[in-house]
Amino acid sequence: MPHVRLIVARCEVAYTGRLTTVLPEALRLLMIKSDGSVMVHADTGGYKPQNWMTPPTVIEEEEGLLVVRKRAGKTEDRIEIRITQVLSDVTHDMGEAAALEKDGVEAHIQEALADAPHFCGEGFRLVRREWPTDIGPVDLMCRDTADGWIAVEIKRVATIDAVEQLTRYLDRIRIDPAMADCRGVLAAQQIKPQARTLAEARGIACVEVDLAVVRGEREPELLLF
Amino acid sequence: MKITTTHNDLLERLQTVARVASTRSAIQALSGVQISAGPEGVELRATDMEIGLRTPLAAEVERPGEVVLPARLLLEIVRRLGGAAVELELRPEHQDVEIVSGTARFQVRTLRAEDFPLLPSTDGEHTVAMPAQAFTETINRVSRSASRDETRPILTGVLVSVDGPSLRMVATDSYRLSVKQTQLETAIANGFEANVPARALEELGRLVTTGTETITIGVTANQVIFHIGNVVLSSRLIDGQFPNHSQLIPEAFDHELTVETTEILEVVERISLMAQKNAPLRLSFTPGELRVSAQTPDVGEASDVLPIPFTGEPFEIGFNAEFLTAGLQSAGSPQVILKLISPLRPGLIESADGSGFLYLIMPIRLNV
């Protein structure tokens, strides 16, 4: 089972490799992960270690000395940690690692809007997700109450690039005479002002969506229009 | 360029124009004030490309020329000068302007004068004269409803319409809508309609003093130019379709209540102290009584009661405290008429003196 070792110790850290550095003796947190990662933290400097070595590493330990080595091409990277006082030395069984779960990514917005396409425009109904074009799939293809086609491009944050991307899709889609009148909608949690200006200049509608509202987790704000 | 002016005049004029100079433009010259000295006199100019301001400066011109100096730095320098007279001289060989007042000497590097844009002007044919006080009073009643959200530029403006003896301004941020219709004493011959940035109108409000009787307004295809005495304020117009406000105002309301403005405003302002972090202000109507309450988790709660001529089934409606306060403050009449339909339909605040002010406000959902 994976273990992590945390040592709080007064130590001096010397690195030799592509350059030479020394961290003078001070109280530090040494973190040694089961995959061979070694990090030397101070209580300042944010999340970033003062010194570290990524796996694969060889860790050798003797009284008052911890040596971490790693081959780096023809040379060797080496951290020597000289420990003068150990305040704490604990090892924890970390169990199985669970991957980071993100909510609100593009795929989630697409999924939510596919279930509730009316948030992209009144009366919209979904025809297909990932509608194929010869330059890539458009996120949603919908039809409105008058059976008009609408290509919906979905972003978390829509920039000018998103407008350009949707414009390219529309150019390809409109080659088919049956879809010559296909309109475009750019749907995003946030639309940058420049993207909105460019989209409107090209006749592309912009819709800002709130994922919690689309999912029905929260009532929408009341607006005059 | 070499000019001599008085300290007071220069400070006063710089304070006026420096506000307009850009604070975040990539073009350095836009953070400057242009000093233009010619045979007609001296003019100070500043612009951020949206708003432009020109104001004359009484000065003796020894050598004509144009120069652009950092606006805020120049203002700070002039503010701290001790002498009664100030001399400004361009030294092209040093690319700076020497400012001398009393025993103090400053040498300030100039900004690229060629980057400073030409400010628009009217040809004089398409201008209208407008009573200054009526115009700015109308601005003050509506401009707070204009949106500050740059992602919806159309809503950052105030729709100004002049038609005969009628001046109307409309502003909305989609949560509330302000309309003020002002009857002018004399009809205006050349009417116009334009979406003017609220920022420009608020600047105009600052420039109009109690002594200003008339302002001249010129509207071109994409610019509006205001003459306030010898100061010229120009602004770009906002392009696009402004929301049709008359469609947004409900034709009928279920409740119409006339209340003293100061009484309800005092209660609303008092209880709003506990409507923090977007918490709504609750208005509970029961026969003869209005209870205003607010609650903010981890802060506290408050309530107050106001006698009110309400009849019918009790109901409760929530409003954004700031928006409701702004509406009541802007009514500008001793009494207001509150018009309501239901907890999820817009409410209307109307000035009861027939001064033509309407404030439509969307409620906030109350989770019981």
Give an overview of the whole structure:
The complex is a heterodimer of chains A (225) and B (368). Chain A has 225 residues and is α+β, with helices and mostly antiparallel strands. Chain A has two domains: 3-93, Protein Yojf, Chain: A (Distorted Sandwich); 104-215, 3-Layer(aba) Sandwich (Trna Endonuclease, Chain: A, domain 1), CATH 3.40.1350.10. Chain A has helices at residues 106-115, 160-173, 193-201, 211-214, and strands spanning 3-16, 20-33, 38-41, 51-53, 58-62, 65-72, 75-93, 125-131, 138-143, 149-158, 183-191, 205-208. In chain A, strand 9 and strand 10 (149-158) form a beta hairpin. In chain A, helix 2 (160-173) runs parallel beside helix 3 (193-201). Chain A is elongated, with a radius of gyration of 28 Å. The model of chain A has no long low-confidence stretch (mean pLDDT 92). Chain B is an alpha+beta fold. Chain B folds into three domains: 1-113, Roll (DNA Polymerase III, Chain A, domain 2); 125-234, DNA Polymerase III, Chain A, domain 2 (Roll); 253-362, DNA Polymerase III, subunit A, domain 2 (DNA Polymerase III, Chain A, domain 2, Roll), CATH 3.10.150. Chain B has helices spanning 7-18, 71-80, 132-142, 198-207, 245-248, 261-272, 321-331; strands at 2-6, 32-38, 41-47, 51-57, 59-63, 65-70, 85-91, 96-101, 104-109, 127-131, 157-172, 176-197, 214-219, 223-228, 231-236, 255-260, 280-286, 289-296, 300-307, 315-320, 335-340, 347-351, 357-361. Chain B has an eight-stranded antiparallel β-sheet. A six-stranded antiparallel β-sheet of chain B has the order 11-12-23-22-21-16. In chain B, helix 3 (132-142) packs across helix 4. The N and C termini of chain B lie far apart (70 Å). Classes of the chains: A alpha+beta (225), B alpha+beta (368). The interface between A and B is medium-sized, with 12 and 18 residues.
